[in-house]
Amino acid sequence: MKPKVTQAQGVVQRDPSLALVDFIAQARDHQPYGGVLWEEPTWDITPADVKTRAHLAKKKTLYFTEHAGARVPLEKRAVFEAAFAGLVKACLVNRRLKRGMESGTQRVFLRACRYVYGTLPLPVRRDPTRITRGHFV
């Protein structure tokens, strides 16, 4: 698939939908959390967490779901729309590969994504390339 490129006022821009597909595909191909399935709404990243200590040996799980109380079981949580989940997962993978982010900072980033997700209208949740600055005001 050849990316669509446009030029306006001397600036080359790629089609955002194609750029998103490429970004997700690259992250998926280089995913550092062995044993997790990309499509799943939860990732157990415990084996990849190199800073695990014996006294902190609890499971490190990332939930790609809307905000819910700590005791709400996964089957009762609303999972992210597939496109938004793909973007968030790709960002997490990118942060891990480029900056070595561990589970704690990954969870903070994921929590921030949940807040953003909660404010977005459904069409934007299904196509994150439609997010604008106006969604953050």
Lay out the secondary structure.
Blueprint: E1 5-8, E2 11-14, H1 16-29, E3 42-44, E4 61-63, H2 82-99, H3 103-119, H4 122-126
Antiparallel strand pairs: 1-2, 3-4
Helix pairs in contact: 1-2, 2-3
Number of helices: 4
Largest sheet: 2 strands, antiparallel
Tell me roughly what share of residues is in helical segments: 25-40%
In terms of DSSP E residues, the strand content is 5-15%
Strand order of the largest sheet: 1-2
Order of helices and strands: EEHEEHHH
Shape: globular
* Termini gap: 35 Å
Radius of gyration, in angstroms, nearest whole number: 17 Å
Word description of this protein:
The relative contact order is 0.14. The model has no long low-confidence stretch (mean pLDDT 85). The chain is globular. The chain is built from 4 helices and 4 strands. The protein has helices spanning 16-29, 82-99, 103-119, 122-126; strands at residues 5-8, 11-14, 42-44, 61-63. Helix content is 39%, strand content 10%. It is of the alpha+beta class. A two-stranded antiparallel ribbon has the order 1-2.
Structure characteristics:
137 residues, two-stranded antiparallel ribbon, single chain, globular, 4 strands, alpha+beta
Write a short abstract of this structure.
The protein has 137 residues and is an alpha+beta fold.
